[in-house]
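@channel sequence for tomorrow's demo:
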Amino acid sequence: MASNATSRIDPGMRDRPVLHLDGPTLTSNLEVLARHAEKDGGAERYVEGLKFKSALFQEALAAGRARHLNEENFKGLVAFMPSVRRRIAERMKDVGFPAFRQSLEALLDGATEVGAADARVAAFVARFPDDRRHRWVRDLAAEVLHFTLPELSADVPLGLGRADQYRRAARNLARGERGPSGHRRARPL
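structure tokens (generated this afternoon):
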């Protein structure tokens, strides 16, 4: 008896990207991830790292502090965003840091309103060119919202590229692949 999966989706969520995960594959990849995490100090070490990242974002951006953010602190936050850090420098040279700070202020101003994340991310993305070279902008918005306001993270959409990145990383971890620097490497899909 087949059920219609879309009938269970909240109507407001139908236009969002959907990540389809296969149960056995997900379970297998999670087991491999846990085994590999033990080599690096266990999953607890990764959880502590995420807590640290969130604390940095909250200290720099939460409660209206984005308006006082300086360029050096912003660069420090960007260092924790792999899909953004290599691509943002050129754009910052073009428009200057104050424009980024204004965009972040607008993204975070009133961000505690539940259900507004999609609109906030869309407005943030609209401030940048709509081309391939600026796909990282959605990731920047999602990361800033997620790590600055983790209690609202269920409302923050992942960037379209982020789901692919997670899937790719899980597949590569399952294969035990490492990049030239010794870090686990993601391969193109």
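heads up for whoever presents: Confidence is low (pLDDT under 50) at residues 1-7, 155-167, 178-189.
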